[in-house]
UniProtKB/TrEMBL annotation:
Database matches in CDD domains: HAD_PSP (cd07500)
Name listed for the protein in its UniProt record: Phosphoserine phosphatase
Keywords: Amino-acid biosynthesis, Hydrolase, Magnesium, Metal-binding, Serine biosynthesis
MF GO annotations: L-phosphoserine phosphatase activity; magnesium ion binding
Organism: Crenobacter luteus
Superkingdom, taxonomy of origin: Bacteria
UniProt cross-references to SUPFAM superfamilies, sorted A to Z: HAD-like
Lineage of source species: Bacteria, Pseudomonadati, Pseudomonadota, Betaproteobacteria, Neisseriales
Amino acid sequence: MSAYSLVLQAPALSDDIVAALAELSGASGVEARSADVVRLANADVARRDAVATHADSLGVDAAFVPAGKRFADYGLIVSDMDSTLITIECIDEIADMQGLKEQVAAITERSMRGELDFAASLVERVALLKGLPEKALGRVYAERLALTPGATELLAACKTHGVRFMLVSGGFTFFTERLKAELGLDYAHANTLEVVDGKLTGRVLGDIVDAAAKARLLRETRDALGIAPDAVIAIGDGANDLLMLAEAGLGIAYKAKPVVRRQADVAINHGGLDAVLGLFA
């Protein structure tokens, strides 16, 4: 059986919290410690659920990771966009330009929880945007879109260590292509909104990037690069990301819906995306 380290991340971790989680996890001792990250050696992965529940109640991110893993051991990160790499759900903010944010956001939330078929819910939401000027998308990008805390640090580490970064979104190419250019991402895939005479038609062009497409794009890119399956990290927050997370060597739920937290290898509930880096020795 592989040895696991338990990585604890939170601002100013106290000795009492570390000791309590060390005991609960059956760890043999402190392997490494900094102000915000503690690595406990030889933790019992069978105690993961109990540790996760208690750590979450303390505002601590707790993750069981294979001992000795380094960030540079990975060759590809595949990330969702909305509420993962960026802080907003773009479609909800676009809908706000139509005065329909509450209605669309409710559908988005149910879809992300896995209560609605993603493709059908996307078609339903996009239809409500019919007639909106395309320039409204530019306003959302310029005025409302912000990177998730820690995203800049994660992307910088990818460039330093030669880890490719792919954005795979059930959102829209209007945003993913701009982020790809601005941030220097290696790949970006999303849905294309149809625009005629400067206005949205309420339709999506081509096949919808749904859960199956995200997983397929991960596999295709991984294989094209010659990267081993266990050298891929996937990060997402909604039910539409579950197949993608399952395809990765390490699936990370980032501030995710409960269904995703339960099925991912690691859940980051409190920290920024730089907490991905803290997982590794």
